[in-house]
Amino acid sequence: MKKKLLYGIVAIIVLAGIIMFAIQGFNIGNKYGSYTKLHFYVEDGTVNKDEISQIVSESFNGKEAIIQNVEYFGEMVLITLPSVADEEVDTFLGKINEKYSLDYTKDDLEIINMPSLTLKEVVSPYIFPVCLTVLLALIYMVVRYRNLGFWKVLLKTILAIVVIQALIFSIYLIFNLPLDLSIIPVALTGLGIAIIYEAYTNNKNWEQKKKEEEEE
After folding, report:
1. Are residues 41 and 103 in the same domain?
2. Could you list the pLDDT tens digit for every one of the 216 residues in the chain?
3. Quick one: 123 and 22 in the same domain?
4. Are residues 22 and 39 both part of a single domain?
5. Following CA atoms 57, 60, 62, 65 in sequence, which dihedral angle do they give, to the nearest 10 degrees?
6. Which of 1, 13, 39, 5 is nearest to 170 (CA)?
7. What is the CA radius of gyration of the chain?
8. Most Cβ neighbours (<10 Å): which of 11, 102, 150, 202?
């Protein structure tokens, strides 16, 4: 009864994730989504990060930005934020010119617009090592617990891996969590849980079967 309830909850979460994927797709996030880099330089002056942060917030409608000092004397700042419009850059320039008594134009800023990555591009570096890990785990399972049935062990292990990963991605979709670097350890942890769980249940079933054979 408890297993049926658990399976039902998992099925509902995965179904909700599929629906959210159809509606909005994955939230790639700032790390993998399109973003803009601005290099801002003030000759013979020190840039105050708090002041720049305030100007950036006002100019780019409160978009989350990363502000870094590039040079030792604080004359250059690198600003990284989600993709911006030309009008927002114009507003930023106006405020910077007013604050630091400058006459900068867009040509005086180094503006780099980076396109967003696809999900395939995000996960491609991890496909080979993960597939190798899964293959080795499957080989171990079917060899170690072959007395329980080759196909039974193989299909159960694959199903556990698929369900756990589907559950993880469904949670990301339901809560619209960004697919940043956190997805890698989370997905790998899920993979480990699935393999360990199947190893535990297979070992338990193997011991039970061995005990029954000895009693006979």
Report:
1. yes
2. 677 888 899 999 999 999 999 998 887 665 666 778 888 777 655 677 888 889 999 999 888 888 887 765 557 888 888 888 899 999 999 998 898 888 888 888 888 888 776 667 777 888 899 999 999 999 999 999 998 999 999 999 999 999 999 999 999 999 988 777 778 889 999 999 999 999 999 999 999 888 887 776
3. yes
4. no
5. -70
6. 13
7. 26
8. 202
213: its two tokens:
């054979």
Burial 181-212 (b: 16+ CB within 10 A, else e): eebeebbeebbeebbeebbebbeeebeeeeee
Interatomic CA distance for residues 21 and 171, integer angstroms: 11
| Cβ neighbours of residue 56 closer than 8 Å, sequence gap 6 or more | 63, 65, 67, 79, 81, 92
Whether 22 and 42 share a structural domain = no
Beta strands in the chain (DSSP E): 35-41, 66-69, 76-82, 110-114
Per DSSP, the three-state class of 77 is strand
Q: Do 140 and 72 belong to one domain?
A: no
Q: Which of 114, 147, 179 is the last residue of a domain?
A: 114
* Domain ranges, residue 64: 34-114
3-state secondary structure 192-213: HHHHHHHHHHHHHHHHHHHHHH
Q: State both tokens at 181.
A: 């670097």
Pair 75, 38: CB distance under 8 Å: no
What is the number of structural domains in the chain?
A: 2
Instruction: Assign residue 98 the CATH number of its domain.
Output: 3.30.70.260
Specify whether 56 is located in the same domain as 107: yes
